[in-house]
Design a protein that fits this description.
Helix 1 runs antiparallel to helix 8, helix 2 crosses helix 7 and helix 4 packs antiparallel against helix 5. Helices cover 64% and strands 0% of the residues. It is mainly α.
C-alpha cells in the first residue's frame, strides 16, 4: 500500500508545484495562475483524501479478515445495507431477518472493496473530512488547527471560483495555503500507513480474566 500511496502523492505534489512556481512569477498572468492554483489545490486535496482512503479500505479488504475481526467502523461499512434496514423498517419480521443476517455474517470474510464507501460530497470541508477520518479510525486532533483554513481559505475560495466570483489572494498567501494543504495530505498519508502497519483496523483481542489463587 505504501508504494501506491507514494505514487498517488508524488504526481499531485509535482502538479501543484508547477502552479506554485507560476504564481510566484511577476506578470499579468500571475492572478490567473493563483486563481487556477486554488481550484487545482482543492481538487488535489479532495482527490487525495478520497483515493488514499479507498486504498486503505482495499488494503484491509485484501487481508480477508472476518467482520468480527474488524473494528466496528469497518464492519459497519460492509453491513450497512442491513443496518439501514434495521433502522428504517417498521416491520418486525423484516427487522428480525435483518438482525439474523447480520449475526450470521459476522464470521464471514468482510467485503469492503471498492470506491463507494468514501464520500467527499464534492465539498471536502473540515466536517466531511472529520467524518471520513473517523470512519477509518484516524484521529483528527492534529488536524483541528487547520479546520478554519480548510473551510475558509480553501473550500470557500474554491466554491467562489467555481461560481465565477472574484477572490482576492496574493502570492504569499497562496504559497502558505499550498504549504498547509500539502502538510495535511502528507500527515493523512502517514496516518494511513501507520494504521496499516500497526493493524489498527483489527478489533482488540479480548482476554478473559484469570482467577486469582488465594495466597498460601
Amino acid at each position: 500500500m505504501q508504494d501506491a500511496l507514494d505514487k498517488e502523492m508524488s504526481w499531485r505534489v509535482k502538479e501543484i508545484g508547477s502552479f506554485t512556481v507560476a504564481a510566484k512569477a511577476n506578470g499579468p498572468q500571475r492572478r490567473f495562475f493563483i486563481r487556477a492554483g486554488v481550484a487545482l489545490l482543492y481538487a488535489h486535496w479532495e482527490g487525495f483524501i478520497k483515493s488514499s482512503s479507498d486504498m486503505y479500505l482495499n488494503y484491509i479488504h485484501n487481508k480477508s479478515l472476518s467482520y468480527a475481526d474488524l473494528k466496528s467502523c469497518f464492519a459497519v461499512m460492509g453491513l450497512k445495507s442491513k443496518l439501514n434496514m434495521l433502522r428504517e423498517s417498521k416491520k418486525s419480521k423484516a427487522n428480525v431477518e435483518a438482525f439474523e443476517f447480520i449475526t450470521s455474517e459476522l464470521g464471514k470474510t468482510a467485503s469492503i472493496y471498492g470506491s463507494n464507501y468514501i464520500d467527499t460530497e464534492s465539498n471536502l470541508t473540515s466536517i466531511v473530512f472529520s467524518n471520513i477520518a473517523q470512519s477509518l479510525d484516524i484521529e483528527i486532533d492534529a488536524y483541528q488547527m487547520h479546520f478554519n483554513l480548510i473551510d475558509q481559505s480553501l473550500v470557500h475560495r474554491r466554491n467562489k471560483i467555481a461560481h465565477g466570483e472574484y477572490i482576492d489572494i496574493g502570492g504569499k498567501e497562496f504559497s502558505d495555503l499550498v504549504e498547509n494543504v500539502l502538510l495535511m495530505m502528507r500527515n493523512y498519508k502517514t496516518d494511513l500507513e501507520n494504521a496499516a502497519s500497526l493493524e489498527k483496523y483489527k478489533r482488540p483481542a479480548t482476554t478473559s480474566a484469570q482467577p486469582q489463587l488465594p495466597p498460601s
